Amino acid sequence: MRVRAGAGILAGTMLLLSACGSAPSDDDGGSGGSFKACMVTDTGGVDDRSFNASVWKGLQDAKTADGDVDPSYVASTTEADYEPNLNAAVDQKCGIVIAVGGLMADATEKIAKANPDTHFAIVDAKIDLPNVYSMQFNTAQAAFQAGYLAAGMSQSKKVATWGGLNIPPVTIFMDGFAEGIEYYNKQKSATVDLLGWDEAKQNGSFANSFADQTAGKNLTANFLSQGADIVMPVAGNSSLGAANVAADNGGSLSLVWVDFDGCDAAPDYCKFFLTSVVKEIPTVVSQSVVDAAKGSPRSGSYVGTLENQGVRIAPFHDFDGKVPAELKAEVEQVGADITAGTIQITSPSQPA
């Protein structure tokens, strides 16, 4: 039985984008290995500088660790591409097929059931099948820290967040961010407002796409016009629209990036990134691929947390000298309290 759950750069040497439904490309710019590790992207694309790109980096890292690994990917343009792309990977005798994102859960479960001798892995969903390894991340924990930090750094006392789609792998970030701001307000008797997300109603602002930078730009510009000076977009490639707004406004807007460290994902915009809510997807993906290549494919599930370093906030980079030492210490203590259970996060999108 499949259970949906919570919480998608440097892509290395990029593959030529494979046509949807076709066999995964095996030309990664280097000598091919004997173990095919195949990735099926979601609709954001492999070069989204966020979720898909972090999975692809994991495959590249696996190749570096084990020369037998031959990574490839096939890109999905729409959700209708998921099943044919997964089937294409199976037909190519891929040693492991990695599905990217919770939206692929139904298709992955179906194809995995039909192909019990093929090993699958999926990011941001849980599928209870013996030939599927589920990788989930409790990003609400690190997003809580980011929300506390943003509340402490906001000069206007207004911050905002928006997502790609209203789905648990997205809203888990938004929930944690909201709870971190709320905690800051309680601790400091402050009144920092959050625009773009109502955790109680599980409703807010969305681009309705992970690949629409124009929508991302419009949403961010709207929040800027309402007085927000820090924004956290959770929308893959659409989030680059927010970076464009920050660049166009001369530093009056700061951003919190997600999935990857923004300064690695989009270095041209590094000076606008207060921090990032990082999912250590590359590490977990790389380890699962290398294990599969060695004949010991993983099964069951993994949940990344602050405690096991599967999620974290990134360094402050250009903001390091701007964040007060006291606030830095408080953010670190908040993380310790989350790990200890002193602070309880209530997001309904947290992995079980």
Automatic annotation (TrEMBL):
Its main location: membrane. PROSITE patterns: PROKAR_LIPOPROTEIN (PS51257). Keywords: Cell membrane, Lipoprotein, Membrane, Signal. It is found in: Cell membrane. Residues 37-318 form the ABC transporter substrate-binding protein PnrA-like domain. One of its GO terms (cellular component) is plasma membrane. It holds the Pfam family Bmp. Gene3D superfamilies: 3.40.50.2300. Residues 1-25 form the signal peptide. SUPFAM superfamilies: Periplasmic binding protein-like I (SSF53822). It is a lipid-anchor. CDD domains: PBP1_PrnA-like. Belongs to the BMP lipoprotein family. This is Basic membrane protein A. It comes from Phytomonospora endophytica.
